[in-house]
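INFO  loader      accepted 1 record
INFO  loader      residues=127
INFO  predictor   begin
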Amino acid sequence: MSKAEFALGSLGGAVLILIFIWIAVALYLAYTKMDVMLEHLKNSSAVKALAFYRQLGVWGHLKLIGEIAALVTSPGKSIKSGRLSAQDIDNFPPSLKNKLVLLRRSVFVLVSLLFLVGGIGKIAGWM
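INFO  predictor   done
INFO  writer      dumping tokens
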């Protein structure tokens, strides 16, 4: 095993560990702050339609936190279509909104890094 293979493998392993940490943080927010999120988004039909995911266990909580993070991160299209209340977004707690935005953006970075590391390994012929 060359130094480059070891370095790329270590980077891939670090990205996987960060993804598991991301899942743990998302589940922590889902189980501790879900009542607050649903209370602040109670006038939005999109959130009311997604609320049933709460009874589907861990995967349901991950899906729900992901959808709420998507709505809070880029609410423009949902507000225009009437699925999301602008008043709900304005009244949403800023600290929780920042956490959801960071959660949403970080998952895109982590998944992109994972594909990048895998692609480099594939191109180099290590896989």
